[in-house]
Each structure stands twice: as structure tokens, then as C-alpha cells.
Design goal:
By secondary structure, the chain is an alpha+beta fold. It has one domain: 2-Layer Sandwich (60s Ribosomal Protein L30, Chain: A). It contains two helices and six strands; from the N terminus they run βββαβαββ. A six-stranded mixed beta sheet has the order 1-2-3-6-4-5, covered by helices on one side. Helix 2 links the parallel strand 4 and strand 5. The mean pLDDT is about 95. Its EC number is 3.5.4.-.
């Protein structure tokens, strides 16, 4: 049965969607912008924004009883592919080397609130 996941340790949805849903042993997050849930603001720069987006993902996974080690697929949306290397440096610190998840990374024309990055994941529960 599908269940909605919600935590105040990640920013609330800014539209008609859930932070994440679980179904059949999986958790699928919505794209996480780099919004600090305590302040509602974005940090400066691609590395800080990547860190915040993944911190939000981690909080949602933990609220559902999962973890970053159980992530099987990520999608990274970048406003500028020139930020790929700097994003990658931070991204790698959230996962265990040798068991990285599958990933797609794409440049998009624009992200909500003019963010530099947005990240969504699928993980096992």
C-alpha cells in the first residue's frame, strides 16, 4: 500500500506533491531543492546547495526507516553542467565508495526558485 512520507527535518513541499512515497519496499523522493528547513533559505554556491539537497534527502529517507546506504538510483538536475565536478565532490561524501547508486545527471533550463541543483532518489526500505 502506498504511504506518504513527511518530516519537518526537510523542507515542506512547495506544491501539490509529497516529500516522498513508499510502495512495495521502495521509497521514492520528490526532487529536493537545497532549502534549509530551519530558515527556508538556500545556501550559497553549488557545493553548499548539493550538501543541503542531500541532507534533505537523508532526512526523508531516515523518516521512512531507510538510509543513504539503501539508495539504488539518483537523478541530479543541474542548472549549469559546468557545476558537475563541484557537485560530484560533495555528492561522493554521502555514499559509500564501491557501492554508489546508479545515477543520471542532467542540465535543465531552470530549477524552482532558481536553485543550482535538485536531487531525487529511489531507495530500498
Amino acid at each position: 500500500m502506498k504511504q506518504v512520507v513527511s518530516t519537518d527535518r526537510a523542507p515542506a513541499a512547495i506544491g501539490p506533491y509529497a516529500q516522498a512515497v513508499t510502495l512495495n519496499g521502495l521509497i521514492i523522493t520528490s526532487g529536493q531543492l537545497p532549502i534549509d528547513p530551519a530558515t527556508g533559505a538556500f545556501p550559497e554556491g553549488i557545493q553548499a546547495q548539493t550538501r543541503q539537497s542531500l541532507t534533505n534527502v537523508k532526512a526523508i529517507l531516515e523518516a521512512a526507516g531507510s538510509s543513504m546506504d539503501k539508495v539504488v538510483k539518483t537523478t541530479v538536475f543541474l542548472s549549469d553542467m559546468n557545476n558537475f565536478g563541484a557537485m560530484n565532490e560533495v555528492y561522493a561524501t554521502f555514499f559509500t565508495e564501491g557501492s554508489y547508486p546508479a545515477r543520471s545527471a542532467v542540465e535543465v533550463a531552470r530549477l524552482p526558485k532558481d536553485a543550482l541543483v535538485e536531487i531525487e532518489v529511489t531507495a530500498a526500505l
